[in-house]
Amino acid sequence: MKRTFAIAIFCAIATASQVKILNVSYDPTRELYQQVNAAFAKQWKAKTGNDVEIAQSHGGSGKQARSVIEGLQADVVTLGLAYDIDVIAEKAKLLPENWQSRLPNNSAPYTSTIVFLVRKGNPKHIKDWDDLVKPGVAVITPNPKSSGGARWSYLAAWGYALKHANNDDNKARDFVTRLYKNVPVLDSGARGSTTTFAQRGIGDVLLSWENEAYLALNELGKDKVEVVTPSVSILAEPPVSVVDKVAAKRGTTEVAKAYLQFLYSEEGQEIAAQNYYRPRLQKVAAKYAGRFPKLELFTIDQLFGGWQKTQKRHFDDGGVFDKIYTPGS
Amino acid sequence: MQLSFKRPSILPGFWPAFSYSVLYLSLIVLVPLSAVFLKAASSSWAHLWKTITSPNVVASYRLSFGASLVAGLISVAFGFLVAWVLVRYQFPGRTAVDALVDLPFALPTAVAGIALTSLYTENGWLGHYLTPLGIKVAFTPLGVVVALTFIGLPFVVRSVQPVLADADQELEEAAVSLGANRWQVFSRVIFPLVRPALLTGFALAFARALGEYGSVIFIAGNMPMRTEIAPLLIVTKLEQYDYAGATAIAAVMLITSFLLLLGINALQRRTRSFMDVS
Fold first, then answer.
1. What CA–CA distances, in Å, run from B231 to B29, B127, B211, B224, B243?
2. Cα nearest neighbour of B232 on chain A
3. pLDDT tens digit string along B251-262?
């Protein structure tokens, strides 16, 4: 339904005379791209004299990628993890497979990480990952097979365990298994889990994107929830790319490229930081340093050898995640 | 030869009407469904077999069919009761209750799911009375049954209600005057009358429950091997870009439901012909 809606918006805009592009993004970036789009349109007008309008479409990262594969005319994609753009390149061949090396910083203009959202006063004293496997702690996180954010959470927990067990893979696996034994509900997406935790009052801790956690904090109020930053977490890199074939067909390559470049500019980085995404630009990062607690961050390439390999080992059918629930198979 | 499978009818126009029915059914039902099988066939048999026999998929079939069956039976029992009350008694607010029955039809299922979940979680209105008794509803298979019962009720009520309304009360009076006790009146007179309608209601409620997604995913908790329904696994497979796997699970559900519904229809025809004879 989101998809048809996006197409409807898209068609409505396509009848006007100015340039329009469609940014297909994932769930928590709604607020971020509303601001980015307004700022970029202004800058583009000043620079070229042309009007540009950017339509946005949001949904679970995997679902959005599937819509693009099935024909949603996205000029740019800004998704939750590189694997989803890899699949667009691989299955629909809409962009080259080396897309991630075309823009700086693995094509991720901003980063985020996984933090904990706990109830006011932190009644279960949750400070770090090892508190999540204690008996009686209910952890809320979506199913990593269907949610991009949940995959980052799963890997963050695994990475923490590796670092605390001298890189013993079996111990890390055991740790993650114990963690998922404390999960009473697996929603299919990140927004679903946030609702379960915040609106329905289920669970003691929500594993969440950092930006989503602060958004929830502002929305629910500081008298309801608190954000806890663990000692170690994963550097989540939500990547962006022009969808070459769609942009070429629609004649929007130039503006689509400029749009993504804008995300790396000082102004774009400021907007990202204001929306609780960690900026890449040193100058902006220093300015907003107070917003982002310091913690040790590792990347998926360092500990897991990239998305393709990780997806296959952990999240594909019959992978490590499935085995948590079917011991002995 | 060409008319061998149709009984003579007084009304003309069999062929145009028949052709339109076939065309309509093909466009609306058969074409989309064959697309499911075609898509599933795009993958290797080994992959399909592995998908539909993997432990969590098998567990989801068991849950989907089991919970739908239980929910269908509950709907039959209580739907019959509701229909009975609505038809046989006059009481203030009867039209309001009558309208209430249709609500599960009209309500977006997600709304129902969210409402039921907040009622039945451990700190919900009903949940906090049930939890001390050791009964957990939300995030257990029981929760799935509750949601499916909710959406199944109107099917039974609406199938049985007109049959009950048409049933002549004189039949019951005659039975009593011939010396039947109350149980005999019910089991020998009323029940045989409504049995075909009950079967229809059950089939509808059961079929609807099998395909239900929106309300169940909220209350089920979606734990692999325990509370994942088959439709959810189809969605999960799609999220993993496994189109063939998703359609394979769907095809198994389709075939099984088709066989079950065929069986129910046959049963119904038998009870009907039994009534014609007696």
1. 19, 26, 7, 13, 14
2. A188
3. 999 999 999 989
